[in-house]
Amino acid sequence: MLGMKWAAFRRAKPYAEGGFPAPVSSEGARILLWDLEQVEAYRDGRPQPSIPTGDHEQDLLDRRESAVLLGVKPRSVDSYKTDAGLAEHVVVVGGAEHWPRAVLLGYSAGRGVMSSPSGRPKGSGDTVPRDLLPGRIAELLDAEPAVTTARLVEVLGISVPTAQRHLVQERAARIVALMRTESDLDAEAAAQRLGYPAAVRRGAVKAAQELVEAP
To answer: What pLDDT band is residue 181 in, cutting at 50, 70 and 90?
Structure first.
């Protein structure tokens, strides 16, 4: 758009200059995105059009924005996005995953609301449906990184083997996500950073290493 090669763009960082359009990606996002019409106007020396305000059903929200809308932490979205309700509607923009606002609201309504980490989810009955388990476990890990298998069994009404399997998988996924964000961390260091107790760290680290090495 600016007539520069990628390497030159990265060195010059024109987006850091005064007058360059502000990114439309969320604050703190690793991948910065800009509005096409605003960049064209900047390049041509024309007044930049304003970004529409207000919430619209087709707004595309990135990982951080989705977390805010759903009332969870960004790493919980990493678990939710594998559910069919979100996976079928993902839109990748510049390498960053986004979901339509309407889809996120529908997903939120469909998965129900956690009553609190100290009790069963409202409307869950004796057990939580299998497709909702990753999200429920993610919420419990958000509240307590050292949450135990016994706690999952108590709150979610699932069997011990199921709780163990899902808890290891979720911890491993978070370790890998942190390693990709901070490339200087190995799996063990990432597990410590996430607050996983030594008693469960070994299994989570092993599972994370298998995820990294998987083709």
So the answer is: confident
Domain that holds residue 215: 119-215
Please give the structure tokens belonging to residue 110: 């469909």
What is the torsion angle, in degrees rounded to the nearest 10, for the CA atoms of residue 96, residue 101, residue 102 and residue 107? 70
Amino acid code (one letter) for 124: S
| Cα–Cα distance, 14 to 180 (Å, whole number) | 26
What CA–CA distances, in Å, run from 178 to 13, 71, 89, 145, 187?
26, 21, 25, 14, 9
Span 153-171, mean pLDDT? 85
Q: Could you tell me the CATH number of the domain that includes residue 77?
A: 1.10.10
Residues 164, 141 share a domain: yes
d(CA 94, CA 23): 13
Give the tokens for residue 193. Answer: 């950073």
Q: Which SS3 state, helix, strand or coil, does residue 100 take?
A: strand
Structure-token pair, residue 65: 């924005």
* Boundary (domain end) residue, out of 71, 93, 111: 111
The total number of structural domains that make up the chain: 2
